[in-house]
Amino acid sequence: METEVNTLMWMIACLANNPGVQEEAFKELDELFGRNKPMPKDEMDLPYISAIINETLRYRPPSAFGFPHVAKEDDEYNGYNIPKGTPILLNLFAINHNERRFIAPDKFRPSRFMREYSTGSKRSSLYGILKNNSPSLNNDSVPMHMSFGAGRRYCIGQHLAQKQLFLAIAYILWAFEIKPGADENGETPLEINLNGGNLTLTSFSPHPYNVKFILRKDISILFQ
């Protein structure tokens, strides 16, 4: 659950810093559901919500290095000798911020994970992308982000995690607007500082921050 919680914490902070992204999500949710909350079966009908999740995983992967692999035999890469048995870490953060794979990788842009996306137009479905195990928009054989790892150590809980993240963020954005909260000095920053974080070999989480949730709908509907 740690990586899933980390992702949700990064996502809430990113949304607080990007009101325009929230507005697009509100349009999608309100257009389809209004006063009815989204359900698990609605994931394919909410491509922008799914894009927010994928962009968060790319922008701030919950584990910057993933789980270690081990070289099965002696190898060489770019002049470096890699003896058999050497532990190898995937630099997921660097891969996800590679300018050859992503335009403006330091920008939080969920629309990069949508086909034929344009503000105000009919949103194209992410059904094919999600169905095919999240392939790249440019190359269907390459994952569009590496936050679930690679090879035989690829995270087997990917689909469960994505379902749970979808429900969490779809519910939150259906009911609330997220804004930066006041700090310990009582001042409200324009943005939450997302530079750096708490980093270990298996976990990457944001530094503590404050946000405020502003009701968009009658919260009592959630408990009917």
From TrEMBL:
User: Which InterPro entries would you find in this protein's record?
Assistant: Cyt_P450, Cyt_P450_CS, Cyt_P450_E_grp-I, Cyt_P450_sf, Cytochrome_P450_fung
Pfam families in the cross-refs:
p450
Presence of the UniProt keyword GTP-binding in the record: no
Residues noted as binding heme in the record, renumbered to the chain = C155
Q: Which UniProt keywords apply?
A: Heme, Iron, Metal-binding, Monooxygenase, Oxidoreductase
- UniProt superkingdom: Eukaryota
Cofactor(s) recorded in Swiss-Prot or TrEMBL: heme
Against Gene3D superfamilies, the record matches this protein to: Cytochrome P450
Q: Which SUPFAM superfamilies match?
A: Cytochrome P450
Tell me a Gene Ontology molecular-function term this record carries.
iron ion binding
* Family matches, as PANTHER family: OXIDOREDUCTASE, PUTATIVE-RELATED (PTHR46300:SF11), P450, PUTATIVE (EUROFUNG)-RELATED-RELATED (PTHR46300)
Q: Which family does it belong to?
A: Belongs to the cytochrome P450 family.
Query: In its UniProt entry, what is this protein called?
Result: Cytochrome P450
Q: Which organism is it from?
A: Glomus cerebriforme
Biological classification of the source: Eukaryota, Fungi, Fungi incertae sedis, Mucoromycota, Glomeromycotina
